[in-house]
Specification:
The chain is mainly alpha-helical and about 120 residues long. It contains 5 helices and no strands. The protein has one domain (about 5-124): Up-down Bundle (Four Helix Bundle (Hemerythrin (Met), subunit A)).
Length: about 120
Amino acid sequence: MQHHHAMVHLERLENMLADLLRLVSDQRGGDRTRVEVAAESLPGPGDSHVQRMTQRDLDFCIGEREITRMHEVGAALRRLHQGSYGFCTLCGDAILEARLDAMPETPHCMASANKRSLNACTRL
């Protein structure tokens, strides 16, 4: 990968990580922990059990999605610093620049990503 492209991806990944950290912080209302946020899902007067459970599950799903994305972006940043960024973590082939432009955090080339998807579908 050319140095210029690596620097562009480094900046994008760092910005993505900062955005995700802000989003998680905003979802939690600042520097609160997941436990503190979950405590707000405890029963309130007039709340039905179903309403509380639905809201709690939604809150956790939203947070989990962002945390998963933070891990993906962090892993991409580590690969970039280690010099393995831009190469598929499964097969070792180069990942197309267009794919990295669209998803700079991706660890897989298209062929490996497609194989993983097919394998996941056949296990269902």
